[in-house]
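Figure-free illustration: sequence to structure, shown twice.
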Amino acid sequence: MRHFIFVFILFSIVGFWACERPDREGPVVDFDIQPRFGDSLTVFHFDASLSTDNRTDHFRLKTRWDINDDAIWESDFSIKKDFAFRFPHNGTYVVKCEVSDGEGNRSYQAKLVQVQPVPRDSTFTDSRDGRLYKAVFLFDRWWMRENLNYGKSLVNGESPSDNSIPEKYLYPEPDLENLYGGYYTWNETTDYGRDLVNGICPEGWRLPVQDDINRIHGILWFTDNYSDYISIGGSFGLDLPLSGKYITTAKTWDSQGRTGNFWMNHQQAFPKFVTWASYNPYSFKPQILTDYNPLVAEAVLWNNLWGPFTYHKVALPLRCLKDHEIK
C-alpha cells in the first residue's frame, strides 16, 4: 500500500511539472521620453522602467534600443532600463525599445521623436514707434515672439475709426498689458481693407496665413497637446499667451487666461470671410469664422448677451511673420 502511495505521489509531481505550460508571453513594453521635444543639441533620455512581465521580476528584464528603427541596435541587452542619445540631425525619428524576459521572450514598442532645428532668437525694432520686439526663426520663417503693441490706445470703450491711425484696446491690468499686447478690430488690422496681406504689421512683416499654421500642425501631428511647444516657455519659442478677446460692442473682456487668438490673412476674395487662429493649452485648432456660420458662436464661446455673433464685434491680438531672415 505504501508503495502504491509513493508511486501515485511521484506520478502526480511528474504530471504537474509536465502539465505546466511554458512561458511564451512576451513582456509588456512601455517607455518614456524626456524631453518630449528638442533640437540637435538636446540629449534625449529614454526610460523603459514602465515595462512589465507576467513571470520575470522587473529588475531582471533586459532592454536594448534602436534609435532610428533601422535594425541597427545602439545598445546591447542590459538590465539597465534607460538610455540617452543626442540626434545629430533634424527630422522625425522612430525610436524602438525591445525588452526580453527571463525565458527569452521579446516584445518591443516604437515611438516618434521630433528633432527641430536649433531655435534662433533675435530682436527687431518697429521703426514707426521705436518699440523693440523679440522674434524666433521657426520652419524657414520668422515669427514675432510677442503680440503687436502699436498704435493709439482707445479709452473708455470708444470705437476705432478710419483715420489712418492704427487704434488698439489694451487689457486694463498693467502686469498683463505688455504680455497680451494690443487688441485690434479686423478693420484696424487691415487698414479698413486696404491691405489684407501685411495689414498694420511692421515694415517687411505680414499677417499669418493658413500655411503658417499648417507648418505647426505638420511638425506636431503626433501629439494632441501643443502646450509644451507653443505656450509661454514652450520649445518653439512662440510664447503665445492666453490673451482671449475683447468684445467691442459689449465693452467686455473674455477668455483671458483660458484661450488665445490672433488675426490671420483669410486669403479669400469674399469680403465677409474672415479668419483667426484660436488655441488653448491643450490644442491649436485654427478656426475659420464668418458672419453667417451658425456654429461660430459656440466655437468661440460666444455669450448670447452680446447679441448675434459677428466678427466686427471682436478685437484680437496680432502676430506678424517675416519670410526671410532678419538683417
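We now fold a second protein in the same way, so the two outputs can be compared directly.
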Amino acid sequence: MSNLRILYAAGPGDIVGTFRYWLHGKDDPRVPDVAYSRQFLDVCQQVGADGWIISANPRRDLVEAGAIRAENRPITFDGRSGLIFHVGRALYTLGLIRSAIRFRADVVVAAHGVHWFLLSLLPLFGIKVVPAIHNALWLALVPPRFTERVLLFLARPLFASWSLAILAHPGTCARQVSELASGRSRPIVPFLPFYREYAFTGVPQRGARRPPFRVMFAGRIEADKGVFDLLEVARQLTERHRLDIEFDICGAGSCLERLRREATAAGLAERFRCHGYLVEARALREIFGACHVVVVPTRSDYTEGFNAVVAEAILAGRPVITSRLCPAIDLVRDAAVEIPPNDVAACRDAILLLCDQDPIYEIKRNACSQLKAQFFDSRNSWGEGLSRILANTAKV
C-alpha cells in the first residue's frame, strides 16, 4: 500500500528555512510559536505520508529530503489590487492544482493565496480538500463588495459539500464558514496557535517598574492594522503631557518607513520606536519583557484572523487592548480591555486606564496565568486537528 500523499499550500513564511531547521530536529527560531509548517512536517512524519509544502514566500526556493519537498513559490501579482489581484490569486490556485495532480496527492490542505472556489476542481481528480482558515472570509463590519459576494457564492459548495473537513480558528473564522454554508458546512475542526512551554521562559512577570509605561504593538506595519491610530494616540498623549507612556512597534510592512517619518515629524521618535522586523524570536521576547501592555488595534477594513500576538501577550503575562474584530478576545477576555473598533480615543483611554489604575492592571495581568494553558496544549493545535482529519480519510 502506497504512502498517503499530502500537498499543503501554506502562508507567506519561509517554508524552506523552517524545513531545514526541522531536518535538524529544531523549531524555527524566527517565530515564537510552533510554525504551522513545522506542525505539518510532524504530521507527515507521524502518519508516514509523502508531503509537498508550498509557501507564498517571495524568495523562490526549493529543497527536498526523503519523502518531503519544501518550496517557496511567490504569488503572481501579490500586493496588487482590483482585477489584477484576483488574476494573480487564480493563477496561483491553478498552479497549486496542477502541482497536486502531478504529485498524485490524496489530500490538499490549503491555507493561503487561493481562490477557494477553484479548489472545488480537486475532487474531480479524486483529491480531498481541507481548507485551513486563518483569517476571516469577509470583513466583520463592512458588507462584502460585489466581487467578494460573487467569490463567496462560488466558494459555498467547497465548504458545504466538497471539503473533507475544515480547519478554522474559533470565533469569527469558524462562524463565517458556517454562515457561508447556511449552517450545513462540512465538519469544522477548531485550532489555536501552539507554543512550547519554554517559549516565554525568562520573561519577567511584569514590565519594569514605571515610569515609563511601555505599550507594545507586534504585527505587519500597515494602515489597516491600526499603526497610524497608535501614532495618533501617542500624539494625543503628548498633548496631555503624558510623557511617561512610550510605544514599541515591532514588525515590517509597506508603511514602516512612512510611520517612522511621521513619528519623527511629530517629535515622537524617541517615545514611538519602530523596531522593524525582529528576525529572532528571542528579540521579540525581550520587547515583551520590557512592555506593560500589548495593543492590537486592527481596523475594520482588515479581515483579521485569530492574531497570535494576543496569545503571545498572555504567555508573556501582559494584558491586551483590542476590539471585537480580533476573534482571540473571546478566549482571553479576563486579561483584556475591549475597545470599539477604529476608536482612537477609546484606545488612548484604555492605555491610560491600565497605566494609572494599578488594581485594574494587576487584575488583568494576574488573569494571564489562568489563560496560558490553552496555548500550550497540543490537543488544541493545528497539527492535532489535521491528524484527526487524516485519521478519517479512509472512511470518506
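Summary for the second example: The two ends are 18 Å apart (CA to CA).
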